[in-house]
Amino acid sequence: MAAVAILVVTAAWLRFQGQPWWCACGGWNLSSWQVWSSHNSQHLVDPYSFSHVLHGLLFYALLCRLPLSRGARFALALGIEAGWEVLENSEIIIRRYREATMSLDYFGDSVVNTLGDILFCALGYGIAARIPVRASVALFVATELAMIATIRDSLLLNVLMLAWPLEAVKHWQMAIAGG
Ligand SMILES: [Zn+2]
């Protein structure tokens, strides 16, 4: 119930802020794998979905010792993720992304993409709850490396570039933007 409420409130908030429901292209393919296109973060699934699975792994690690019920910890994790999504789609962060990172065309996520992100976070959380810690760590590292190898961006790189933009990294990321 709490999880559904979080999804509904997040969707309503983003709509209120003027984010579109769906990609402006109007195409109904559920996924978009073109990171350097206006379709990124607009369809349901894209390469960044994997970084949201990693959010789920991290939240599980952070919250699993809290003296709350399993349901309450899960709802808290989704609440933090939804809060991050709302922040990420605020004017300040969108502007910062576009100035400091490779996200030149970034105007914020579509509502459906954001709900997908939260669901992928829930998936990561569920995975972490079921597999050993070492397996979660391995999954985290493998996902980071796979993302860096394929799209030259990842959760950790994203955080780094948002907090402390490095020109060299930006050039390296932009180098494959054309092809
Ligand atoms: Zn599109």
Textual characterization of the structure:
By secondary structure, the chain is an all-alpha fold. It has one domain (41-174). Helices cover 64% and strands 0% of the residues. The protein has helices at 2-16, 49-63, 70-88, 91-100, 111-130, 133-151, 155-163, 167-174. It starts with a helix and ends in a 5-residue tail after the last helix. The relative contact order is 0.17. The model has no long low-confidence stretch (mean pLDDT 89). The structure holds zinc ion. Zinc ion binds at residues 23, 25, 27, 32, 39, 42-43.
Main sheet makeup: none
Mean pLDDT over the full residue set: 89
- Please trace the helix and strand order, writing H or E for each element: HHHHHHHH
Helices, by number, come to: 8
Which consecutive residue ranges, at least 5 long each, have pLDDT under 50?
Answer: none
**Which cofactor or ligand species appear?**
zinc ion
Count of spatially separate domains: 1
Radius of gyration: 16 Å
Keywords:
179 residues, mainly alpha
Q: What's the short version?
A:
The protein is globular. It has 8 helices and no strands.
Sequence-ordered SSE layout with sheet pairings:
Blueprint: H1 2-16, H2 49-63, H3 70-88, H4 91-100, H5 111-130, H6 133-151, H7 155-163, H8 167-174
